[in-house]
Amino acid sequence: MSPVSLAKVKAAATLGTYDVDVSSIPENDYYQAIAENLLEPIDYSIVDKNSGPAELFEEFGVQSSTISYQLVYNPAKYPDGGPQSWADFWDVEKFPGSRALWNMPVGNIEFALLADGVAKEDLYPMDMAKVERALAKFDELKPHIKVWWEQGSQSQQIFKDGEVDMMMMWNGRATDLKAQDVQLTQVWNESAIVVNRWIVPRGTPRKESAMKFIQSSINPANQAVFAKALHYGSMNPATLDHLSPEQVASQPTSPEHLEAGFRVDAQWWGANMAQILPMWQGWLLK
Amino acid sequence: MHGAGATSTGRRSPLAGAGSYGLILPALALVIAALLVPLASIFESSLRAPDGSWTTQIYQNVASTAVYRTSIVNTIVMACQVSLVCLVLGYAMAYRMARDWSAWAGIMIGLLILSFWTGLLIRTFSWMIILGSSGALASTAALFGITTLPQLLYNRTGAIIGMVNIMLPYMVLTLYAVMRRIDPGLMNSAASLGATPLRAFWRVYVPLTLPGVWAGLLLVFVVTIGFYITPELLGGPRTVMISQVVAKVVQQLLDFKLAGALSVVLLVVTIVMLAIYNRLVGPRGLGGGLS
User: Fold this and answer.
1) Could you report the per-residue pLDDT of A88-142, keeping only the tens digit for each?
2) What predicted TM-score, i.e. pTM, was given to this entire model?
3) CA quadruple A81, A82, A84, A85: dihedral sign
């Protein structure tokens, strides 16, 4: 989903060579970029704050598309009903089969805590004790994770090939597979919702055009075009008015999907990634 | 592999002498500007604290974090494994091609070159389709009643198969260049003096191919150390190689200094290994058959 890596934004802002003037980045990256002073403040004389709910408009970014990290399974493998929660995902007795997860601590730590009985409301504030608890919960599941996937296209390939029976997938990739007639059931319950931000790398000479682009893209009708194509809907509820009921049903931002999932505390992840990533990689190598 | 010297009739090139050094200047300038200068800058920045003072903090961090140590060891072990598998497969193939140039040899080298020219990403994804649990190999095996294959993907086996596939042409072509110039009469002479074919092969043929073996092993090892996408897609969490860790550190942590330090450590380890290799094999062994 992230078309531009944060590394590119950093290279642009620090070297002054801008191959990217505007981008949409995941929110944990967004908070890291703010901490590193890589972003241009949004120019609210160009971007109209009244085009959506006030909380979408932040100092260095505008909330744009959303993505749901969700559980999906092959319904053919579970004719009597598949897993409905992360506790089910961990339950290898009741739901035997091979599994796959994204090789990334964000989301996975939360899923392990949910499987371990933590309530959605109690996930945050996150702390190191909770991360340790999550990794301990992962110890029991590790032998059943056949693939720790790295790339979105890879996550689709392994599901399509029947390599795994259930896995975490980004919702747009899952809807895309269903459109290709792949047997797949999406579970919106306990999905992790991550909100992307439109950002402008600090110092770009084409700042004004970038701001104008953001202004045109946050128009609900334009957001709806994006949502129809990629199913990563906007946090602006007005977008839903431009979608059919079937199209709304594939968005992470439909009212019931927002209710069923939880918002990731990306600010915490942005601040703690440097400490957690080596822990996560070290755990995987064990 | 023919240098300028090979085009002249004698051992001395007409361009030999002090003036000929001018010929290496353009390439040398490129190496300095595009390799040595950035490398020096990476090394320097990895030794600087945020306030600009000198520090070895990052290197202490690398030494004390398990994942960095393990992935460097992993990288070297896997590069050795890939080199050895390539040698075994490549030696047989190059031998067959050099012994007698039949239509088969032509087809073999054609396939090899075709594979060489095909994109790395395509070949890596192809292995996912071939080796997957319901992939081409599994369904072919099922025709013969074999239904329980070991897991071939997302572990060391998968990563090594993928990397061997990509590196094999380097090994075969290097060996072939050496084998092609071995006089077949030497084997006949050995036979006429009473050597069995196996003995003639081991005592006469193999020693003559050693320069190609050493050069091929070195080439495959050095390139394999830098593999990224193939082990990323075909390997598992326990086969993480250093480039994968460097990519994560850059992409997820934006920590260019740590990434630079990891690269420096890998470079130093590689240079030390090459120095040992050079000591054991010797520069004559490496260049002998090629120059």
Assistant:
1) 999 999 999 999 999 999 999 999 999 999 999 999 999 999 999 999 999 999 9
2) 0.84
3) positive
Quote ipTM for the complex: 0.80
Angle at which helix A171-179 crosses helix A152-160, to 10 degrees, equals 40
Report how far residue A169's alpha carbon sits from residue A192's, in angstroms, rounded to the nearest whole number: 11
Angle, helices B66-99/B103-117, rounded to nearest 10 degrees: 150
B60 touches chain A (CB under 8 A): no
Pick A45 or A4 by higher pLDDT. A45
Report the C-alpha dihedral over residues A38, A44, A46, A47, rounded to 10 degrees: 90
Cα–Cα distance measured from residue A183 to residue A177, given in angstroms and rounded to the nearest whole number = 8
Q: How far apart are the first and last CA of chain B?
A: 7
- Which of A281, A19, A171 has its CA nearest to residue B69? A281
Q: Count, in order, helices (H) and strands (E) of chain B.
A: 14, 0
Q: Would you call A272 exposed, middle or buried from its count of C-beta atoms within 10 A (0-12, 13-18, 19+)?
A: middle
* Chain B residues whose beta carbon lies within 8 Å of the beta carbon of residue A159: none
When pLDDT is averaged across residues A143-159 and rounded to a whole number, the result is 93
Structural Rg of chain A based on CA atoms:
19
Inter-chain contacts counted by CB atoms under 8 A, chains A and B: 73
Position B207 confidence tier, pLDDT thresholds 50, 70, 90: very high
Tell me which residues of chain B, numbers 108 to 127, contact chain A at a CB-CB cutoff of 8 Å.
Answer: 125
CB A260 within 8 A of CB A190: yes
Sequence-distant (6+) residues with CB within 8 A of A230 are A65, A172
Q: Report the distance separating Cα A44 and Cα A37, nearest Å.
A: 19
Q: Check if the beta carbon of residue B174 is closer than 8 Å to that of residue B212.
A: yes
Give, in order, the Cα–Cα distances in Å from A205 to each of A20, A36, A62: 11, 20, 20
The pLDDT value recorded for residue B286 is: 55
**Alpha-carbon gap, residue B93 to B45, rounded angstroms:** 46
In sequence order, which ranges of chain A are alpha helices (DSSP H)?
Answer: 6-15, 27-35, 86-90, 105-115, 128-141, 152-160, 171-179, 207-217, 220-230, 245-249, 255-260, 266-285
Chain B residues touching residue A285 (CB < 8 angstroms):
66-67, 70-71, 237-238, 240
Q: Which residue has 């200094």 as its token pair?
A: B257
Residue B147 has pLDDT above 90, yes or no: no
C-alpha B131/C-alpha B151 separation (Å) is: 8
Residues B212 and B289: beta-carbon distance below 8 Å: yes
Which among A231, A124, A229 is positioned nearest to A174, based on CA atoms? A231
The single residue listed with the structure tokens 């380097």 is: B170
- From chain B, pick out residues whose CB is under 8 angstroms from the CB of A77: none
A234 forms beta bridges with: A65
